[in-house]
Please model this.
Amino acid sequence: MKNLHLELFKRYEQNPILTAADWPYPANSVFNPGATLLQDGTTLLLCRVEDRSGRSHLCAARSVNGIDGWEIDNQPTLMFDPEHFPEELWGIEDPRITYVSEIKKYAVVYTAFSSSGPGVALALTEDFHVFERYGMIMPPEDKDAALFPYRIGGHWVMIHRPVSGQSGNMWLSYSPDLRHWGSHQIMLKARRGGWWDANKIGLNLPPIETTKGWLVIYHGVRQTAAGSIYRIGLALFDLHAPEICLKRNDEWIFGPEKHYEQRGDVDNVVFPCGHTIAADGDTIRIYYGAADTSIAMATGSIQTILERLE
Model:
């Protein structure tokens, strides 16, 4: 009989891999990085950096092996710009990166923190030096968003998480041009009651295409007397109709266990925003924020994850 509690992701033994102490300019914390493999095989993390005003911006770190030897931009890579984008008044956060081969650009979907709350913003780039900013494409309160890598049914598709009161479900929206979004529908509902993912869920990694369907790694927020606990779960969706959930794991598969995940600016948080997949098409690395303070990495197998969903 298979061990259903087999660890799906193995933490890097020397976690965390990046902290504010590594930064070339003053920072309070670095966490929740988007991730991608560049054309030359370099791993790029687009990290959320919180400065000492309490606002966040995005900064790129590059590594040949994706583990160490990080070269960090000596100034913010993408800075909040409330003069031209007033929806970024209180900073920009939590990027997800998708390479879109049709336009040969990386789509960076991130949270813009406006005076009315967080909304979803989009920027396109070829090199992570120059960005074409689309501004806010989903109004507050909305976040935890990422783009699919190609059109489905002739339209671009995005996962996002609008919030109503204290509850939040994951939604899909469609667009002909990446600017105007409609045909909104619920993709995955938060459960009710005592579940680990009751009341509020949200996307973590951009959707991963597999032979079985779109693999989605998402988070659930459990409210306890001591505060919130952020844990990670799995779901699988139809390749041609991603609003159809094929499978959903009942148990969380990754949660705060290590000291750097349990203690920090926000205790008990593991929050991956980015991943890379090795040349074998199976080995996956997730890069995650630990306790809203540092960046850590863990490695798994897509095949093993899919087997867990079976």
